[in-house]
Write a structure and sequence with these properties.
Blueprint (H helix, E strand, L loop, with lengths): L1 E7 L2 E2 L8 E8 L2 E9 L8 H7 L4 E3 L5 H9 L3 E3 L6 H9 L15
Parallel strand pairs: 1-5, 5-6
Antiparallel strand pairs: 1-2, 1-3, 3-4
Length: 111
């Protein structure tokens, strides 16, 4: 499985539409197989869900997601998980343990 953590300035992103950086993690058989940090300067935030899908991402960890982005992510079968006040490393760890809750709440940014 491949999942992404949305970042802003190497910190957890609280707004998906403003996140140009992502940590992409490949997780298989209970282990992190690889990690990669990517910078997406090209995609506008409306195109970002498809960009992540093209990378093979199946889940996104991010706290703030607008209704349009959430709809696009869900339509692409990308699950969204929140992480509250966790660091990026702790959010990744908790996700791999299955402790993060799927987030269906939207951050109404009107994007």
């Amino acid at each position: 499985m491949k999942f992404a953590v949305a970042l802003i300035d190497n910190a957890p992103a609280f707004h998906f539409g403003k996140a140009n950086d992502f940590k992409i993690i490949t997780f298989n058989e209970g282990k992190i197989v690889s990690t990669e940090e990517i910078h997406d300067e090209v995609s506008v935030h409306q195109a970002r869900p498809q960009y992540l899908k093209n990378l093979g991402v199946e889940a996104l960890i991010c706290n703030g997601v607008g209704s349009g982005a959430l709809e696009r992510l869900v339509n692409l079968d990308i699950k969204v998980y929140g992480f509250n006040e966790l660091s990026v490393g702790e959010a990744i760890h908790q996700f791999t343990l299955g402790n993060l809750i799927e987030n269906t709440d939207v951050f109404e940014c009107k994007c």
